[in-house]
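Anyone have tokens for Acetyl esterase/lipase? Sequence:
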Amino acid sequence: MIQRHRYPYGEDPSQWGELFLPDLPVGARHQGVVVVIHGGYWRAQYGAELGEPLARDLAEHGIAAWNLEYRRAGNGGGWPGTFDDILAGIDQLAALADPHALDLGKVVALGHSAGGHLAVWAAGRDRVAELGTGNADSLPGRRGVRLAGVVSQSGVLDLAGAERLNLSNGAVANLLGGPSSEFPARYRLASPMAALPLDVPVYAVHADADHDVPPEMSTGYVDAARGSTVPARFVSVPGDHFALIDITAPAYLACRQLVCELLR
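Reply: yep, here.
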């Protein structure tokens, strides 16, 4: 029997998450939590319904999952709202740990497409805060729940490359309010590349027939992360972009296995 609990982490209608929990023996604790971050090129028309099947599947396999909604470009998100929401949404787990017996020593993120970008970016939150120190264009400082690892599913991990390729008709500029020539600080702070080197494991999983997000978004990040304390790993899986969020597809099953490895 899966339990579902929805909680806000802010006042905006898009600032909420839904906790999917498997049953526990009396007195036991959930062994880790997975933060599911949906994609959709950061646009408002795509929401947490994309992550719900993944969160439910994880709970059905004994894993607590937090399906996170956030403001996107077009409904109050963009820079810095989307990014601040991701950190605030992850931090909300601290308030849920005791009532739901969550182990916050093992919090990992599973993010698809734009959600992969946000998941890997959040893993570098301390480094981003250092880069933004004293910069009026930076995010507010936050110290909260830290990620212990990330599985990125065809993530848009290279914002400079995504802008150059004009992915999804200018999705990066739409997120950040304009081109990098106009907002260089935003592009630097918003890029997972800028947070390298990381000290947490990142699996950059990419579908081999992905025509929405090219594999170089993952391979480029992995190449740049070679000097990290824990180098990122590239994992190729069969299927197209959406096979990664099809809970019956081998591409998704590989991601679930990697999540389990991170939790162990």
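The beta strands are 3-8, 16-21, 33-37, 64-68, 107-112, 149-153, 202-207, 233-237.
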